[in-house]
Amino acid sequence: MVKKKKVTTNFKTKKRNGIHYMICRNSIEDTSYWGWPLLSKHPRCNEWSEVNADVTAVLCPKCVNKTVGPPDIKGGYKSTGRIRGWQFMKEFVDKDGNVFHKGKEQPKLKGTLEPTKPKPQKKKLSRLEKSELRDKVLQQMAMVRGNLKTAKWKKDIKAGNVKMRRLTRQLKKL
Q1: DSSP symbol at 115
Q2: How far apart (Å, rounded) are the C-alpha atoms in residues 43 and 27?
Q3: With b meaning 16 or more CB within 10 Å and e meaning fewer, what string describes 96-135?
Q4: Residue 35 in contact with residue 8, Cβ under 8 Å?
Q5: Could you tell me which of 10, 12, 40 has the C-alpha nearest to residue 26?
Q6: Where are the alpha helices (DSSP H) in the chain?
Q7: Which listed residue, of 22, 68, 96, 150, carries a Cα 20 to 30 Å from 8's Cα?
Q8: Strands (E), 55-139
Q9: What is the pLDDT along the chain (174 residues), one digit of tens a residue?
């Protein structure tokens, strides 16, 4: 375990309404801590930070930002021009004629196949259409339940149970 260096200087502290505040470590010239080479060229800081009672030194958020610098923000997602999920398709051909089998390029087959056309997206149902469809499915389920109650033969009961399972799956999809 690494031994911590003890802070040799005592920094000013205040107590207001039971909350402890301490002045920033960069308020004096102290060459013994890691941030000094980065903060030596900036003016001294007079920022007070909220701390616990047992804290010996604190570096305020402004001085931390000066030592760390701004983050490198890279551009977001850049499209390759291929359709969604192309790497999971058994066979995909892009517009340049490159052939891919399960996401791996097949250079020998380049230009031999036509480009893959994207599938049209499914039409989303409106709230009204969904409720109408749900009512139809529930009505069918009621009919099947009635038929199950009156069924005597094992084959009729099994067929009714299969219909019920199918209808419950349809109902869950909505």
Answers
A1: P
A2: 9
A3: eebbbeeeeeeeeeeeeeeebeeeeeeeeeeeeeeeeeee
A4: no
A5: 40
A6: 36-39, 61-68, 127-150, 154-173
A7: 68
A8: 92-93, 99-101, 104-105
A9: 566 666 566 788 889 999 999 988 888 877 777 777 778 788 888 889 999 988 888 888 888 888 887 888 888 888 888 888 899 999 999 999 999 999 999 999 998 999 999 888 888 889 999 999 999 999 999 999 999 999 999 999 999 999 999 999 999 988
Amino acid identity of residue 134, one-letter, is: R
Tokens representing 126? 């409106």
Label residues 51-84 b or e (16+ Cβ within 10 Å = b). beeeeeebbbeebeebeeeeeeeeeeeeeeebee
Question: What SS3 state is found at 141?
Answer: helix
